Amino acid sequence: MAQPEDPKLFEQCRVCIICTDSLPLESAQQLAAVIEEYGGEPLIHHSTPTKEETTESTHIVSGTINFETYDLACKALIPVVKPSWVHTSLQKRKIANPRQHSPDPRLFLNDVVVTCGDIPEGDKDAIIGGVLAKGGLYSSRMSAMVTHLVDLTVESDKARLVRAKNLRAKIILPHWFDDCLKLGQRIDERPYILPDPEILRAGPDDPIRGNVNKSLAGASTPEPAALPTPSDDGRMSVFDGKTIMLSPDLGIGSRLLDSIETVIKQGGASVTGNVNEADWVICRFREGFVYRTASRLNKEVGNLAWLYSLMTFNEYTRPLSRLLHYPLSRTPLPGFEGLKISLSNYVGEARIYLENLIAAAGAECTKTLKQENTHLVTAHGTSEKCTAAREWGLQVVNHLWLEDSYAAWKLQPVSNPRYNHFPSRTNLGDIAGQKMLDRDVLEMNFFSSEDTKPSSPQPAKAEKNKNATTMQPPAEKSRKADKKAATTMDGTTESPQANGKGRKAAEKKIQTPIRSRLIPDDKENETPSSTSSRKSKEAAIAHLHELAPDIALYEKERKRVGGVIHGGRRKSDEDRVRENPKKRRSVDAEGESDTEQANEAKRAKKSRPAISMHLLITGYQPWVGKGKEKKEDADKRHLRDLGIMVIQDARRCTHMAAPSILRTTKFVNALAYAPFIVSTDFITECLKQDELLNPAEFPLVDKAAETKFGFSMVKAIGNAKDNKNKLLKGFRIYCVDDIRGGFDAFKSIVEANGGECLLFRGRLALTNPSRREESDDDDSDMEDNESGRHDVFLLSSAESKHARLWPRFRQVAGDIKRTPRIVRVDWLLDMAMSQELKGVDEYELTEEMIDQDEE
C-alpha cells in the first residue's frame, strides 16, 4: 500500500468511476474515498457520463467498455481502466501503466500476471513480450499476485513454492501462450495445466469437449424471431432517459411496432421520428438517410437484435461489440459473393451465429460438404469433413477468418497462420463471437461523406426550429452522392456533384491537393455553387488545418531510413507532435510508471545496426542437440547485433548457411528463391571475430554431394533466378498420407516452386483444374510445363500399403481425363534441387517394384 509520504499520488487525476454490475456502487464509493485521500478528484456515475464529463476526466474507471462515451474517450486519449489500476498504483506508489489494466477485451491477457519457471531464455522473452503486448503483467518473482506460472514441470523451485503455499497461480505449459498469441484470442487453460496436461496425454482421435459460449447469448442472429418477455422486477433501467428512433427500414408490422414502443416507454425512454432528437437509432440496413445521418452524428446505431438484447439482459452493451448487433449490408462483402462455405465441429449458438454471419457477408452456407464448396470453417482439425476438404484442395480455416473479413469488410488471406491454427485440445467454438466492429471501417465503407451535418427529414419541423440543420436531398439521391465522395490515393479529396435544378449539371468535382491544405482560409480560391456546398468546403478546410501537423510529421518520417512503418518518433525530434497537457495532466506520471515493468521484462539493448542480410540456417551443429537452446538464442542475438537477421521462412532469405548440400526441407525450399549459399563456417567466424564478414569468402563447396545428387549448385541458383518460383507451375501433385518425410514437407517444396500439392488417401475423387486456373498461366509456362498439365502425379514409395492406393489413383485420374504418374519422391527432390524439369520414366513406380524400392 502507499506510504504516508505519498499523500498526493493522484493529485493530477480527475477520475470518473462508472458503476456497473462488475463495479457496484459500494466498491465505487470505496475507490472514490481512496482516490480522494491521495489527492485525486473522483466522480461517481451510475450511468454513462456526459461528453463534457468524459473529456474533462484524466482517467475513467470501469469494469467494462460497454458505456456510450467509450469511443469518445478513446479518441480523446483518455485511458479507461479497471479498478485494479487504483490498487496497483497504490502498491507501486506511482501511477500504474493504464494499458495493463484496460477492460478492452481485445487486450485478452489483461488479467494475467505471469512469471516464468525453468524454460528456455528465448521462450521466456517471447512469452513476456506477448503478455505485455496483450495487456498482461510480468513479475520476476513468485508472489500472491501471480496468476500463471509458465513451466515445463512441477518439480521446479517456483512450482514447488506454488504447491507448498497453495497459491492461486496456475502452473501451465508455455504452449498455452503460444496458441493464444497465434490465434489472437484467449482460450481455455485447462488442457495445458500441469501436472497432467490434457494436450500431452490425449490421443489424436479422442473427442474434444466444447464449453457453453456465453458471449453469444442474444447475439447469434441479426433478425430475432420474437419480442423478448420483459422482466417482472420493475422497469428496465437500461432505457432510462433515452430517446429512441425506430427506422422505417425495419419492415415490422404495426402490432409488433406498438409492442416494442410500449416496452421502451415502460423502461423510461421516449420514441421519436426525428433522427436529430434520437440518442439511439434502430436500423436494419447500412444505408438510407436515417442510417447515414445517425452515424455521422455519432448516435448509437444498432439493429433489432441489439435492442432485444438490451430488453433481455437489462444491461447496456455497445452495438459495435457484437458483429450481428449492427445493421447489415444489402451488398455482399467484396470477394464473398459466390463462395460456398460449410461448417464443421461448431454446435449450438456458435453454429447458428456463424451460419448467420456467412449469410450477412453474402456467401452461401451449405449443410453438407461437397467438392463444389470453396471453404470449410472448422472449430478443430480432426473430423471427416476436414479430411475430405484437404483431399479436395478446399480452404480449411477457423472462424477467425470469417469474423476478421466481416469486421474489416475486406476478404482476408487464408494464408495467414492465424486462420489455419487449431490448438490440439481446444474447440474454437468456445471463443466465437468475440470480434468487434471498427467504426472507422464502417465510416469508410458505408457513411463516408464531406457533409458531416445532415439534417432532419421533416421539413415542417426544420423550418420551425431555428437550430435545425438545412434540408438534404432525398435518401436515394444522398446515397448516390455518398458513392461519388471518395478520397483518392494521392491524398486529394473529391466532393459529390450537386443535385437539383439550381446547380449546374456539368459542375466539376472539387479537388484539394495535399500542398494546398496548409494555406489560410482567407486565401482559399473557391467558387461556391450553393450555401450548403460552401459550408461543406469550409468545414473540410478547417479539418485539414487540424491535420497539418500530422501531415508534416508524416513527410518527415517518410524520408527517414526505414520509412513510416519501421521505428518510431523519438522524444528528441524537434517537430514531434506533443500531447495536449491540459487533456493529459498525468501523462508524465503514467509514462514513468511503466519503467519498473520494462526493467523486469527487457534488458537495456544497445543500438543495433541495420539488417544487411536475412540468413536461413540449416544443419548448424553447435545448435543441434538437447540443452543447446540457450546457446542458439544467445548466438542469434549476437548475429543480430552484427546486422544478420536469422529467419525460418525461406521466402524471406537472402542468404542460406549449411555445412554441406543437404536434402532438408529448409535447404530444398530455399533453393527456389536463389539465395547466396555460404558454409556454416561463416556463422562461426562472425561470432568468433565479433564482426560481419564478407559472405563471398565462405562459399559452400560440396562436389561430392553434387556428384551424388547429379546437379551443379551454381547452375541450380541460376536456374532458380530464371524460374522465379514457377518451375512447377501447372503441376498437380498428390502425396500419400504417411510417406516418409511427411506430407507437409513435400507440400511446402511443391508450393515454393509454384505447383499444387494435395493429400490422397484413396477414398475421394480428384478435382479437375478449372478453365480459369489454366487461362491464368502465361503462354510460356504452358509450353514449358505441358506434360505437367496433362498428367497428375502421386508421390509414393514401393511399400505394399502405398501400392494398394495405386489402382484407385489410376481410376480417378482417368475420370478427369488425366494421365496418372506414380513416382518416387526423388523425382520431386531432384527437380527442386537442380531447378530443372525431369522426365518421370526413371522415377516411375510399377507393381513389379513393390517392396524393392530403396526407400
UniProtKB/TrEMBL annotation:
- Point to the regions of Polar residues compositional bias: 489-498
List the residue ranges of the region (Disordered): 204-232, 448-538, 564-608
Query: CDD domains, alphabetically?
Result: BRCT (cd00027), BRCT_BRC1_like_rpt3 (cd18437), BRCT_BRC1_like_rpt5 (cd17743)
Q: Where is the composition biased (Basic and acidic residues)?
A: 476-485, 570-580
Query: Which SMART domains does the record associate with it?
Result: BRCT
**GO BP:** DNA double-strand break attachment to nuclear envelope; double-strand break repair
- InterPro entries, A to Z: BRCT_dom, BRCT_dom_sf, CellCycle_DNARepair_Reg
BRCT domain residues: 5-103, 103-194, 336-419, 605-700
* UniProt GO cellular component terms: Cul8-RING ubiquitin ligase complex; nucleus
Q: What is this protein called?
A: BRCT domain-containing protein
